[in-house]
Amino acid sequence: MGARITGTGSCLPQRRVSNADLATVVDTSDAWIVKRTGIRTRFLLSEGETPSDLGVVACQRALETAGRRPADVDLLLVATTFPDMICPGTSPFVAQGLGMRGAPFFDITAGCTGFVYALAVAEAYIQAELGERVLVLGFEALSRVTDWSDRRTCVLFGDGAGATLLERGGDGQGILGISLRGDPDKALLLHMPAGGTRRPASHDTVEGREHFLRMEGSGVFRSAVPLMREAMDNALLAAHLEREAVDWIIPHQANVRIIDAFADRLTLPRERVIVNVDRVANTSAASIPIALDEAVRDGRIRAGHVVVLTAFGAGVTYGAAVIRM
Ligand code: ACO
């Protein structure tokens, strides 16, 4: 008996921001952003909105499609790089918003790979018979840690949340194989210098704009493609499946050039690679569960389909999961 996905849900903020809108904030253009990233729009939280509220709605939608209530959840896992508060994180606020009482919750920080890492933990929790149902949320409010004066990063990101409910059961369905990896020597490819215990917040850190996400763009680009492919191949090996058995691949939605370079090296038709980064931009740990939910809801992904989720992210972490829906 494995753990199968019985419900998916997602939620994007209402405010849709185009590349032309961004060109009024920083020195950029629609043409540059589309050519270098493939991104055309993103959805961003407005001032005063509480980030974890997005996560609550995504979870409610996942529970609704599974025909479950918050009281049925035995564990809530929230994959997020930038929580509502460093302490106590995001998961308590999502649990509170859902009206959960007593069940455990915790955050998982593994950058954009966080959702895949959380799926592995969820499956292990169910296999260990610690619970029957685990709600896994990928959630990110990157607009709140983006330096809106830095055109090299601010055009890349969006906010959003995607959730899945995993339940015990389903012979032949569920997670068929998983691979998690990391390369700590690349820890500073993506980082926020201050605000943690290594460099606590001070006037100097604020003046130095050290509370924003910093990224070495070309280093990320070079690492992303081989790492996502390695992760995918390892997960397929664990699942005892060949690439030809795969119906859909959902790579982390970082940018279209990375996804194209990844897809070009596959022996699978390009149409099987799910892409929504052009519309929602890079939502980090939320990118895969949002894309999964959209493809389930529009009927592309159906029961019985084999889906590969593959990601890389800050850490650097990378990993993949093979799932039969
Ligand atoms: N608009 C206009 N010009 C820009 C912009 C912009 N938004 N951003 C950078 N430029 C300029 C630079 O200033 C530079 O100008 P210069 O030559 O006069 O100095 C020029 O464009 C080239 O800059 P590069 O940084 O070399 O541009 P590059 O071709 O490498 O593209 C990009 C940058 C898109 C960030 C690329 O490196 C990339 O895709 N990297 C992957 C990063 C990524 O996807 N990160 C996602 C987050 S990580 C994750 O999800 C795990």
Write structural notes for this entry.
The radius of gyration is 19 Å and the shape is globular. A five-stranded mixed β-sheet has the order 1-7-6-4-5, with helices on both faces. It has eleven helices and 13 strands. The two termini are 14 Å apart. The protein has helices at 19-22, 30-37, 51-66, 91-98, 114-127, 151-154, 203-207, 217-239, 256-264, 277-280, 287-297; strands at 3-11, 15-18, 41-44, 75-79, 105-108, 133-141, 159-168, 174-182, 190-191, 214-215, 248-251, 306-313, 317-324. The chain is an alpha/beta fold. It folds into two domains: 3-171, 3-Layer(aba) Sandwich (Peroxisomal Thiolase, Chain A, domain 1); 175-324, Thiolase/Chalcone synthase (Peroxisomal Thiolase, Chain A, domain 1, 3-Layer(aba) Sandwich), CATH 3.40.47.10. It binds acetyl coenzyme *A. Acetyl coenzyme *A binds at residues 28, 32-33, 36-37, 111-112, 151-152, 155-156, 190, 215, 217-218, 220-221, 254-255, 257-258, 282, 284, 312-313. Acetyl coenzyme *A binds next to α2, α6, α8, α9 and β12.
In short:
The protein has helices at 19-22, 30-37, 51-66, 91-98, 114-127, 151-154, 203-207, 217-239, 256-264, 277-280, 287-297, and strands at 3-11, 15-18, 41-44, 75-79, 105-108, 133-141, 159-168, 174-182, 190-191, 214-215, 248-251, 306-313, 317-324. The protein is an alpha/beta fold and 325 residues long. The mean pLDDT is 96.
